[in-house]
Amino acid sequence: MNRRTMMAALAAAPALTSIGLTLRGTTAYAADAYASNTALYSNPSLVEGVDYGRRSRRHLVDDQVSETRAALVRTTVIAPHGGGIEVGTSELCLAIAGYHPADLTPTPAVGPVHDFWMFEGLRSSNNSALHVTSTHCDDMTARTMCGGSLNVVSLHGCTAAQAGLETGAQAVLVGGLNATFRQYLMEEFSAAGIRAVTASGEEEIAGVSPENICNRSLLGMGAQLEMTTDLRAAMFAAGKNTRAERATNTLPLFWSFTTAVRTAIRRLEATQPVL
């Protein structure tokens, strides 16, 4: 079976029908001012580079030489609400992708590195107004990158109340449609001493809609991580939790979390066929 045939088979995998889900339209998230990224980008009152920014890295896939073959991109790491929207998710996105958030140095130096994409609020305040719920993320770079990957892990922030947990809880809620990925993430968080809870309830937290950007992979499923405010705050030095300072003031918990996710990714990729 050649790569094209295998890719078609993977794209047609019964990830949705096997759990009784079908593609369907969704109404805009009630708290959002914008029904999609396209709507946000089209607003003339918002300036890219001032109000918001987008960052991504797509690694070269070069198959020009018949004697060698470039590896398929297996995993893409995304932060749809980075910067000041859901604090800490940009830095985690970079680190999990294999880059130090301070200077993009490959970390660890031996790799591996993964593709990444993020949307960031750059304002000094009121970044929450830039939130576009994940089922309505239609940024074409994000969709293209996720659609060309076997796996997607999407990073988010929530309050303890939104997660249904006690005040001050430091926890990550693990959601998305990829059950194997969720299992590996839960196991690695447990091994790292990080409280992990299986996400349930509304789509915004559970990430179970096929339209959710985390599930727009080649396999039609991915993983979504919702981290409570207190968990994310504990990853950065006290008094240094600002967009300008976070990247250079990470604490051991930040790297323990990063390692747990990267280990889960490695385990997942090891189960997948060589394409």
Describe this structure in words.
This protein has 275 residues and is an alpha/beta fold. It has a single domain (32-270), classed as Poly-gamma-glutamate hydrolase, zinc-binding motif (Aminopeptidase). Helix content is 26%, strand content 16%. The chain has eight helices and seven strands; from the N terminus they run ααββαβαββαβαβαα. It has helices spanning 3-11, 37-41, 89-97, 140-147, 179-191, 203-206, 229-233, 252-270, and strands at residues 52-57, 75-83, 115-121, 151-158, 172-175, 196-198, 223-228. It has a seven-stranded mixed sheet, with helices on both faces. α3 links the parallel β2 (75-83) and β3. The longest helix is centred in the last third of the chain and has 19 residues, at 252-270. It is globular. The relative contact order is 0.17. Residues 1-29 have low confidence and may be disordered.
Keywords:
275 residues, alpha/beta, Aminopeptidase, seven-stranded mixed beta sheet, disordered N terminus
Summary of the model, kept short:
The chain is α/β, with parallel strands linked by helices and 275 residues long. The chain is built from eight helices and seven strands, in the order H-H-E-E-H-E-H-E-E-H-E-H-E-H-H.
The percent range for strand residues is: 15-25%
Could you tell me the CATH topology label.
Aminopeptidase
Q: Report the average pLDDT across residues.
A: 88
Q: Strand order within the widest sheet? A: 1-3-2-4-7-5-6
Structural class label: alpha/beta
Largest sheet: 7 strands, mixed
Radius of gyration over all CA atoms, rounded: 18 Å
How many independent structural domains? 1
Q: Report the end-to-end length measured between terminal Cα atoms.
A: 9 Å
